[in-house]
Amino acid sequence: MRTAFIGLGVMGYPMAGYLAKNGHDVVVYNRTTARAEAWCDEYEGSVALTPFEAARDADVVFCCVGNDDDVREVLIGEHGTLQGLSAGAVIVDHTTASAELARELYVDCKARSVDFLDAPLSGGQAGAENGQLSIMVGGDQAVFDRISPLMDSYAKAITLIGPAGSGQLAKMVNQICIAGVVQGIAEGLHFAKRADLDTAKVIASISKGAAQSWQMENRWESMINGEFEFGFAVDWMRKDLGITLAEAERIGAKLEMTKLIDEYYGEVQELGGNRWDTSSLIARLE
Prior knowledge:
Rossmann fold; N-(1-d-carboxylethyl)-l-norvaline Dehydrogenase, domain 2
């Protein structure tokens, strides 16, 4: 299919690569053109200088940028993709953004006979590079059925959660759960060290029981070694939690633990850990 990919960050760059490797025509746009040119040196595709140009002949436009404002700029801005799409095309937004924005874009796209899916991701940079992402999708069943084979290029699990905005709401649930798990592991490891336990033996034991999690198995060693220069950045997590807490206030959900952990991440930022992996919660305890 003729596709466009808007946003070649640590997630979008390999995702667009998987589309190209699976035989789809790919036009890429990135705010920094040199990044798009580097992508074309590595994969087969072409560079567009605006989102509008990227989308002009596309059947499907994938977007993975920073936040709500970035999404609005590249999709419905003066040189946005929506201006260049033909009726029947589809926009898939992989950005973690607000559910309110997803619903707005769904309506805007429908008015132009274009379909829209909100499809935030879980799995981080490693998941994107290995084609093992989990994708939570909001939108129409027929559109999901048509587009999910393309997302299979870089995903291990793709789930239609419900109508527009549902993908973003599911991602909020994901971030709530991850925040709690990482804080629990940070405190557990901190306790184990203070108790002079052999941490490796403790993890080998408890990771086979009810405490098991991906975060425990993949982050415990780097956490106790104070290694955080990789993975999903604290700045991104705080952006996501900010969206989540705002939505919780709107719907009347009590997120007491999540609010507290968001403040803990603020302390990590004060330590200079803006770009550290989210497992750096342990740093504030040490």
